[in-house]
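[job 4471] stage=fold_predict status=RUNNING
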Amino acid sequence: MTQQVSHGSSTRRPVHVGRRRIPGLWERTLADGAVVYDARLWEGRREQRITLEATTKTDAVRELEALRVDRDRGEIRHRSQQPTLAEFADEWIKHLQSRVGIRDERRRYSQRTVDLYRQRLDAHILDRLGSRHVDEITVEDVRLLVDRLGRRGLAPGTVTSCVNILSGLLRFALKRKLVPHNVVRDLDRDDRPGVRRQSEPRYLTEAELVRLFAKLTDTFRPVALLCAYSGLRASEALGLRWGDVDLGAGTVTVAGQVGDDGEWLPVTKTRASAATVVAPPAVIRELCAHRARQASRSIALVRSEALVFTTWNGKPQGRRNALRALHRAGDAAGLNGDGRQPVGLHDLRHSLVAIAFENELTLPEVAMLARHANPNVTATVYAGLTADGRERASAKLIEAGFVMAEMAESSVRTRPLAPEGLSAKRPD
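[job 4471] inference complete, writing structure tokens
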């Protein structure tokens, strides 16, 4: 039996012209509001469901009649009976959404990841390939997608992300047996985009951090201190509740994070991210002052279940507000401009790791400080050096005699060679 079109069956409706029901013709409404028509034809005992090209009811009736004529002549046209890429993308996103917040870390997705997939599908993939049937996508389509996104000026990492998202979508279609294989895997190595960053992270020195904090307001200075001195990610700092803060012991417990929609989520990026970390005295002093300000507004704002950082109307503080405040502080402190990328929230965490390496902490110690499950991540992604660190590294080489050794070796290489069998004579 020919495989039937199953996507959207819950929203499929019979087509009527006036009060007359058109046998074998159905319509569906897609997520974007577009109407799709499906025809059901019988050849003996075999049923075929075909997605029509028609976009209006009148054209759909005419196309169905033409299909029946072709069937009676034995010339029925074979078209893809699979959902379009846009239709199947909706189903895939729903599948990913069902895994948000589950306890199985290996299968779990964060809400931010699902939202990113949806945004990049809509903005960069489905605008050209969405109307194509999922089994009609070819490796040439993928290659043209890479070229088109590159011409748009997207960063190589973003293009790579889009290709990976399309690959994940087709891998899900492969599991559903809608496609014979994942065509993204056939993309030639020369056609694949790179992953190199277009901009490197900023690594601030201790003195630059102090200048930055001096320009921040009382509202966001504690957030920046938590990121820079305790290594919290921005979503983790904004997701702290007062019950997670032990001012007496000088610790904070990372137990969740705030999503882009402001909702508190009881999950962390990885299992290693959920931990109790030490908050230095400077952080504790800022949190004590911040708690006093919150209590003066309302005692409800400092209850154990209340978020530490809220807006004036009591809603969760957003990442965008924190980032804007950090950019303004960076401008005021003279850390931005002159071709330098503005200091970002994650740069504070990068700076902590770099300063820790400069102070001769071992790789396992820094990985524990950053709450990385794998120290390789610390070594490959975060092991940058601040400007002060590079200067100290060069000074150490000079003190070790590296430059003198190199100069001596150079003098040996440039000494004139005597003919074979003769010794070189020193000039008088």
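[job 4471] summary: Residues 101 and 139 are 34 Å apart (CA to CA).
[job 4471] exit 0
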